[in-house]
Amino acid sequence: MDLGLKGKVAIVTGAGQGVGEGIAAILSKEGAKVVVNDFFQERADRVAKDIVAAGGEAVALQADVADFDSVTQMVKKALDKFGRIDILVNNAGVPAPLPEGDTPASMDNTFDKVDRALWKRYIDVNIYGVMNCTRAVLDGMINQKYGKIINIISDAGRIGEPRQAAYSAGKAGVMGFSKALSKEVGKHCINVNCLALGAVPHPGLDNRRIGMMVKMGMTEEQARDMIKGIREKAIKLYPMGKGLGRFGTPADVGNAVAFFASDASVFISGQTLSISGGYTTVG
Ligand SMILES: NC(=O)c1ccc[n+]([C@@H]2O[C@H](COP(=O)([O-])OP(=O)(O)OC[C@H]3O[C@@H](n4cnc5c(N)ncnc54)[C@H](O)[C@@H]3O)[C@@H](O)[C@H]2O)c1
Q1: Pick the residue with more confidence: 212 or 34?
Q2: Dihedrals phi, psi of 98, to nearest 5 degrees
């Protein structure tokens, strides 16, 4: 099916690795021109280079989505390069590592034990990041009477995930924001939807977890074995095992994004779809 994305311009935030990288690759395969954003220039450069090497069109633009000035500069550069923005995928949602070390994978601790500075980092990226990027592209989308805004959230935001309270709050906040915004901008032919992911393992996530475990005194090999063991157990225990029985991949997410970025989904707005192999079946 031709999704009609040829020549459309998409910004994918946090696309320097993992899920965002998968989304950027699929949108490019469908013919979109892609702005590969990341907090780290070198990550964005690598992904944009890979897209171009595969025959696509891409530009790497560094910006911190939590910083509105940084975001407006990125959008200005994207407009200078491609002339318009048709699609915004707000994917950045796990804070980038701090200079002094990695941010825990999903603020992995109970709420009574987590430092308040860390809550702020999660809210800054998850909520302000989405609002900043959305605000920065919105006038252009309203003027052109066309836009697709796709927010990558987590099923943690819909069902609540213990040990990830601030993260869950951030993702739930994005869902409320998206519903409200969809009601404001529908008349301008702009769709706003959320995709709520289940577990999507990828090397970037593993590396961050391994880094943390090594800091706690494990060898790299022990850390890798532990992650493998946890994953094998999780696939059996995790409710997802009752669904399709596997974890998701960045390409699974990219395919869903391509649908929501296309006019095949033109009559869907203000909705949240779980991309989790059947893990969550709540409304
Ligand atoms: N991987 C999963 O299992 C999973 C599950 C549920 C939801 N999600 C959501 O999917 C999205 C992507 O997850 P991932 O696993 O690929 O994350 P990741 O941390 O592996 O990659 C995210 C990328 O975003 C960049 N980034 C972080 N903060 C940024 C900022 N302030 N500005 C710009 N870029 C920034 C990072 O540098 C990194 O390259 C997130 O919104 C996450 O919450 C992921």
Answers
A1: 34
A2: -80, 160
